[in-house]
User: Fold this.
Amino acid sequence: MTTPQGSYDAIVIGAGPVGVNIAKVLTDRGKRVLLLEAGRASGLSYDGWLSYVDTYRSAVMKEPNAPYPPNPNAPSTYAQDILNIQHKIPILSGYQVERGPLSFASTYLRSLGGTSLHWLGTCPRMVPNDFRLKTVYGVGVDWPITYDDLQPYYCKAEWALGVSANKDEQGHFGIWFPPDYDYPMERIPPSYSDGVYAQGARKATVRFGDHDYGMTVTSLPQARNSIPRKDYALSSAYGTAHVGERCEGNASCIPICPVQAKYSALRTLGQMDKNYYTLVTQAVVSRLIINENGRIGGVEYKRYESEGSNQYQTGTATATLYIVAAHAVESAKLLLASGAANSSDQVGRNLADHPFFLTWALNPTPVGAFRGPGQTSEIPSFRDGPFRRDFAAFRIDLGNWGWDVATFPPNSNVYTAAAANTFGKTLRRSLGQEIPRQLRVGYVIEQLPEPGNRVTISREFIDPIGCFRPVIHYNVSDYTRKAMISANQVSNALFHAMGIPDADIYTKFTPDSPGYMTYKQDDGTVVPLSFFGSGHHMGTHRMGVSRTDSVTNRYSRSWDHENLYVVGCGGMPTTGSSNPTLTAVAMALMAADDMLTQLG
Amino acid sequence: MRITDLHSLQDHLQEALEIEHATIPPYLCALYSIPEGSNREAASVIRSVVMEEMLHMILVANVMNAVGRKPVLAKPGFIKPYPTPLPHSDDSFTVELLPFSERALDIFLKIERPAKVGAPPQSNRFHTLGQFYEAIEKALTDLTKELGPSKVFTGIEADQVPAGRWYYGGGGEVVPVTNLESALRALKEVTDQGEGLDHTIWDGDKRQELAHYFRFAELRAQRCFLPEDTEKSGPSGPELPVDFDAVAPMRPNPRSDDYRAHPDIYRQMIKGNRIYTRLLQQLQAAFTGAPDALRDAVPIMYEFRYQAEALMRIPSPLSPGTTVGPSFEFDQNA
Assistant:
């Protein structure tokens, strides 16, 4: 069993994509790093990885954490624990305690590699106006950094994560790239259905306020292997050679890529020089020790010997710098439990997700549903615009997996057919006529920072080894609900332009839908809505320009403790509509430069 | 017999393409007979070898194009019916289509066996592949000296399969061939990967990978090589467990004709043959002026795999306790 030896230059808490990428930068420069991971040492052999693939294949619920067996000593929430909160708040069945009023419908994974084991890998940059929402549109807050400040780190993050895209297609709303830069790999080829959407999108328009908006379909940057550019060295799956050097279209990116063609933090871990880091798994950091001078003086962690027993030993470890990269919820929890970094009272607050609003329909002709990565193209047309004074921005993901989580096909189709006593050739024909035509459009919607959306802790809710369970308070404001109304208008315009009659649009929100809620329009009518989680936990330790209303400065360094960094999606002051991992890794690489300066 | 003119060199390269291809059906039969989840190490070894045999086909095709001959794959006769000796070999052994088994491994070892130190080049009726390639390499060198490079390397660069683009998922790398140096480098990659670099157990890859012969030797001995092991010492490392019972019991050397009396099975076999034939046609397109056609060869390979695995599961009415398996026959109607 590995144990910490002596004092380190830096202790990184959490071996997910953010923590591991910081550790990589530090160890590349010869710094000694201790990586503490709460979860098990998942995926350190390819055989072990394949055992997760087996678990996934035999799982009845193919939800994001399905391949990864429950670990009582470093619990994660499983989707089935939090679905349909409406009738029973608070929800106590899962690991995260839900206080409502709405369900925080997203989960994360506490295991080596973090949630990058089950993410989809979508890597769009944020648009410049996302960083100055208050100045430009009078809502939310501004970031302490601009797009231009982060731009060089976006480039580094795209190479660190191995993102496939063509930069000439990605210049949305002022996003720019250095002339000599390109993504490390060519774009993932668009799916057939992307082309079907594109034909309709060309003809579709909607009007919001005084503006007409058109729609275009473009390829989506993704952290999965494709054809390499220049000197980019493709990586194989961890612990084996020549596996996963291209995306194979296994179509199970969430919850697991069987060949690891999709990036996970394991890949970066495999590229690190073993002489410079110590990895300790099954070590749950329970407290940061604060010295009298305000510096962090050590971490206290609970090391459990096995997942089958709640026996653990408490240890402490010390370093010059402490880097909390444990996930937006877990990092906030640790800071709250330690009474650290919270002079602004912002720790745990402004929790946001990208509420994921879905519409679905049947295309007149087959679109080849269920092939390839979850999504290969998007409609970026509503990532920015004057409407943001009035309602939230959204990114439109064009799904490749049929109706996907909207109805859980193809099982749901089989159930329905079986219930109607259909079998044999008739059953096969009816499935063959419907499933290949399924279209599902997902709207990834911005949420503003709201102090009441927050993570708290309470002595009432403790896990088996005596650590706090997160208590989540969550709602979706009218700014975001109104965007769902607009998204539905966009959806209708798009489907109609594709030649789909209303009768073949199946979108519906009934009180038994997960994430059911309503919106009261200006004329008083109440419209039903529903949303899913995107798994994008953000905002719980935001960066800012002032210590009075933010947890860290622009380098993710705590205002209160100069040798403490709090990094990850929790640092984002606003969320835009871009999937946050790429931005979080870019912010982390920016923070790592500051760490190197401090370490000298 | 020496290769003395360009035409004969080109013929021999076409033969090399046929030989490289002839190794693929037996390897694929062994691979697809292993159900997902069992014998993972063995499956991974066979897969790694078969990937590199595909690389060898690309490398040989590149050399052919460079010396001005269009590779031919999609024609009757390109695939010899199994069981068959390796084409143009000394017929010292017979290659069969078998499920993963000790007998199959013995054949694989013969296919990949290293040439003895000092063994002469053999342009025909070769004993080892290394000797056959040595004859080709010698001819390339001699003819370039005799006729001048411009008379030998008459191909156009656009026909070459480029490095780093379409070949992946296996060891080694494509070498685009434009001159004698690159031609020899391409052929050296073929022989190093098969029988080992300079009479060692390694294939010369920077990742320190065993040559094919020694990868199969590990499976046969159910034991791993240690870095200091040699061909003579054999593997002396940790055990490598193999379970020959956890394998689809494919009836040896499947042929569609054998199932004419069983139309349901016959139809499935024809379907497999047509997919395989389409794959050869696609490869031929890629090797004759349209290298980017390799992209669309990949989905056909997957399509074939699914069909082959399905055939592996169909019980054969011809021998109780066996299953049908893919027959790799060229189909004019594909």
Observations:
- Chain A touches chain B through 13 residues (CB under 8 Å).
- Chain A has a mean pLDDT of 95.
- The first strand of chain A starts at residue 8 and ends at 13.
- The CA atoms of residues 413 and 419 of chain A lie 10 Å apart.
